[in-house]
Every structure is written in structure tokens, then in C-alpha cells.
TrEMBL record:
The modification 4-aspartylphosphate is found at residue 63. One of its GO terms (biological process) is phosphorelay signal transduction system. It holds the Pfam family Response_reg. The keyword Lyase does not apply. Keywords: Phosphoprotein. It comes from Rhizobium esperanzae. This is CheY-like chemotaxis protein.
Amino acid sequence: MENSAIELFAGKRVLIVEDEYFLADETRWKLEKAGAVVVGPVARVSAALERVENEKIDAAILDVHLEGEFVFPVAEELERRNIPFVFATAFDPSVIPVRFTGFALCEKPTELGKIAEALFGQGSADFH
């Protein structure tokens, strides 16, 4: 299932918001191999918000905790623009505000097949 689901990324512009360089780079590489156009990766909330404002984005993968700040302002802006996103975190899910509990939460290291299904597969409307 992992390989067929990851094909859902083909042709999509995906924002990666991640402050761990090697994890961000590995995710970028896997997405590009699946045919996605990667926006970023970026490691700060301000940089992510700038990308959301200035680039076409079809979906986003958000690390919850970035260099001392939470990614929730980015999630709010993506939600406002109707851009699907998932949280990818090693944190306890309880740190995520209740208003985002309907969004997919994927454990690190990121499982791109599960993320692809959450963003673009059947039932993806449940995740926004």
C-alpha cells in the first residue's frame, strides 16, 4: 500500500515544514521521487507563512514543534485557504489544540504512504 499511495503525490506541490535537516531532506527526496514538486523545506513558522502567501501549494506536511515555536499559525493559514495538511510529530498528540484534532497526525519518521492517503486519498475531506 505504501508505494501505490505515495503515487498520489505525483504532480502535487507539497510544502514541507520541518526543522530537522536530515528528516526534511529525506522527505523532500522521497516526495520528488514520487513526482511531487517540493516547496521548501522550511524550518521556521515565518518562512512557512511566507511560502503559503507567495507560492501555489496543494498540501503541506507540518512538524508541530519548530526551533522553539509551534507550527499552529501555519496550520491556521492553510486551513483558512482550504489547503490540506497533516501534522508529522514525535510529540505527544495532546499538544495539538482541540480545533485541529480532525487533521491527520503521523508519527516521525514520516510514513509518506499514510500521509498521501490522508491528504489526497478517499476520505481526505475528513482531514481538510
